[in-house]
Write a structure and sequence with these properties.
Layout: E1 2-3, H1 10-18, H2 23-27, H3 29-43, E2 52-56, H4 62-69, E3 73-77, H5 81-90, E4 94-96, E5 110-116, H6 125-135, E6 136-147, H7 152-157, E7 170-171, H8 174-183, E8 186-193, E9 196-199, H9 200-210, H10 215-218, E10 230-233, E11 238-245
Parallel strand pairs: 2-3, 2-5, 3-4, 5-6
Antiparallel strand pairs: 1-7, 6-11, 8-11, 9-10
């Protein structure tokens, strides 16, 4: 298990997330829609609608929209006031602007709980996963995405690995995440490569920020219409994890 040391103060971290405003996220909405369409298809290999689905860290509600279109009754929880307000305006499901322990949902009321790119932000992930386990009915499914600290990409890039950010405070391997989930009463269904669709211009921007030496080579492409196209990636150590709450 790898974690940042010192850890940020939990209350301070919550307040920071409440104040997050990120208009650039909206610019990548199309890619995120395509990503979540693939993800919901993958999720529904393990559990199918109808049913109740809670998206933890729903941000602007893009996955909520995708899940509703697939037949789920959807709830979201989001700390960022800016993002939660956008999700609420969509009118596609109930959005709670609070921490997970403050939402008015009953135990065993959810068939699915999702956490896309969330768990690495949690200074106390075990407590959050315990709460999620209480919200899930026996046989319900937890689905989450994160990156693996023991991936080939981390070994190659080292400190340049793009998901080593200040806001990411815990870093799991397949073994540590599997053991944590099993300890909390889940059985692992699968750990699969996460397929993420992004716009090529965004990838170029991130690439030359990560490797400035490539900027003179890549910058002439900025005016090309080709870079407005979506591209699907399934590397960099990103995975989707699916786990079922044991029935007894």
């Amino acid at each position: 298990m790898v974690y940042n040391n010192p850890q940020p103060d939990a209350d301070q971290l919550i307040n920071l997330y409440k104040e997050v405003v990120d208009p650039s996220y909206i610019l990548q909405s199309k890619g995120r829609e395509l990503t979540f369409k693939h993800t919901i298809t993958q999720l529904q290999e393990y559990i199918k609608p109808p049913g109740n689905l809670l998206d933890v860290g729903c941000y602007t509600g893009i996955f909520m929209e995708t899940a509703i279109a697939s037949g789920w009754t959807v709830y979201g929880v989001e700390l960022s006031s800016w993002a939660a307000s956008i999700a609420q305006k969509l009118g596609k499901g109930t959005v709670f602007k609070s921490t997970l322990d403050q939402i008015p949902l009953h135990s065993s009321s959810m068939d699915v709980v999702t956490m896309w790119d969330v768990i690495e932000h949690l200074s106390k992930p075990t407590q959050i996963l315990e709460k999620i386990a209480s919200l899930l009915r026996p046989g319900g499914v937890l689905a989450l995405s994160t990156y693996m600290i023991d991936s080939f990409a981390v070994k190659v890039l080292g400190r340049r690995y793009p998901f080593f950010m200040d806001m990411h405070v815990v870093h799991f391997s397949r073994d540590t995440l599997s053991r944590m989930l099993c300890m909390l009463g889940f059985e692992i269904l699968s750990i699969r490569k996460h397929k993420r669709t992004i716009m090529l211009d965004y990838l170029l921007d991130r690439t030359w920020n990560l490797l400035p030496v490539l900027k003179p080579i890549l910058k002439p492409l900025a005016g090309c219409q080709l870079i407005k196209k979506p591209i699907t990636l399934s590397f960099m150590g990103l995975v989707n994890v699916y786990a079922r709450k044991k029935k007894s």
